[in-house]
């Protein structure tokens, strides 16, 4: 017997040119480099230029992913984009990307799961491929999160940045008897809407008719993040018969270095197996996982056959994970 499995065949990323350091922020709000670093591990972040849209970041990351995969727009029949910062309320930013890439067939749509957006998008595309409704998909996480920030709130404005990352996945047929097949082994998604007030944006078309700003109860988010992320990692491992020491790389959502370290300790995963970019990228929401993945692939850390675990949690709360044989 054989089955379809989604294999990651390429990845790419893009960061805006403008870099804002902690010292730069200390001139805007009452903060210091030491204060930000101690609480988050962040040293700098990239901020989109005026007029630079989420779709621009997504396009640049997608082109690089497609080049890495060796595919053209004619070969892609599905685009799923995770974003909380669309160019417009509608149409979806994914359809704008579809048009810009010159893709005139297939279908494209956005997914809104905040910082879990890329995992949600990857899981969605994977399921379309596994049932044969698409052959090749472009999965994107892209954000201009700086547009949601209150630049007078030092508890939030120092934590976020802008960027985009993308992967190309393709459905391939594998024999059930094949050991260690390459591809997405499983995905696991969760949400709990009871915790909205802990992390949300205080605006929207239906409520305030404005975009609004990010509001967050940092200590509570931290507590839920460590618990939920550790649980989803264990679920992914158990579902595939692996132990934590079988993982070659954990590529987590880059929210806060303390969350990454605490989750790793809870799971007894060595810190050297974590791919960390939060110090240079800050929290780029749905873009953070594919940004970190692309960096680790391009610098040679992630190699063919490695077992990698993606995981993230965002407002809602939403959270999820994906186990992949590279």
Give an overview in words.
- With about 325 residues, the chain is of the alpha/beta class.
- The chain has two domains: about 170 residues, Thiolase/Chalcone synthase (Peroxisomal Thiolase, Chain A, domain 1, 3-Layer(aba) Sandwich); about 140 residues, Peroxisomal Thiolase, Chain A, domain 1.
- Helix content is about 30%, strand content about 25%.
- Strands 1-7-6-4-5 form a five-stranded mixed sheet, with helices on both faces. The protein has a four-stranded mixed sheet with strand order 8-13-12-11, with helices on both faces. A two-stranded antiparallel ribbon has the order 2-3.
- Helix 4 links the parallel strand 4 and strand 5.
- Helix 3 crosses helix 4 and helix 6 packs across helix 7.
Nearest-integer average pLDDT = 97
Q: How many strands? A: 13
Note the total helix count. 9
What's the number of domains? 2
The CATH superfamily of the largest domain turns out to be: Thiolase/Chalcone synthase
CA radius of gyration is 19 Å
Helix content: 25-40%
CATH architecture of the largest domain: 3-Layer(aba) Sandwich
CATH C-level label of the largest domain: Alpha Beta
Global morphology: globular
Taking pLDDT < 50 over at least 5 consecutive residues as the criterion, the unreliable ranges are none
